[in-house]
Amino acid sequence: MHARLLAILVAIGFAAALAQSAAAHDDQRPHRHPDRNARQNALPAPRLMQQPVQSQPAQASQCLAIANAVPNVVYAHFSAAARRKEEVTITYAGHSTYYIDTPDGVSVATDFSGVYTIGRLPHIATMNRAHSTHYTLSPDPRIQHVLHGWGEAGQAAKHNLAIGDIYIRNVTTDIRAFRFDSEALQKDANSIFIFEVAGLCIGHLGHLHHPLDETHFAAIGRLDILMVPIDGGYTMSVEGMSELTKRLRSSIVLPMHRFDTPLSEFHRRMGGQFEMEMKPSRSLTVSLGSLPKTPTIIVLDGV
Q: At the fourth CATH level, which superfamily is domain 69-299?
């Protein structure tokens, strides 16, 4: 009885501290979105876990490329433990938001604004600030970790942390200061987020506005699954994104941020190097052992 009472008091104290921290932080945040906040508050909290999802000390990336001579890249080998079959579920919520659910039950939402969800909040939200549909400055305080793709005070964002069974890092890129002005760039204002879980390397390009150079490719490393915007202009041209996708040569390519771009156009520009598969579901369950032998563009329902 005493142990149960103690557990309840600890839980109440944690919730109060979290709410107080979020409230204090929000006092300094501009650009409230009352309607968006109402939608978020109507969502159920992240699925309960035995303990809150805590960040852990930084670890070495298993997906990071070891570049002996750029562009000839040699990738790190996986341990036997990393090869064991563990499944990750990826669900398309809309726009540039995918949910990644790990074997241990940790949930991540990419380019999270609160507008596109799958009916529940994630434990972790990553954000980019090119447009308001890719971030929110007033996230639901029940989201335990919010990772901005941009830095503060002229410093680039730097994420390198393990949360539960997922390791998250980022590679920064620039964004246009104005919609179609390719000359005026804000340095390090976008992040390519990389998620390492169950032996898989999953990359989300965010709102990428320019081609990547060799230093970017070396910092990204191997990507088994690539989430790529194919809008054709708000980010990069379809040709530019297809060239980048061919260079990364991920086993699975998940298009997003499509707008009116014909999927056949993106596929055609891959030059026959990738297959394309249409899925009737918004979700894909995948493991390291189930990756397709031929690189495949997988189009989930709603894309």
A: Ribonuclease Z/Hydroxyacylglutathione hydrolase-like (3.60.15.10)
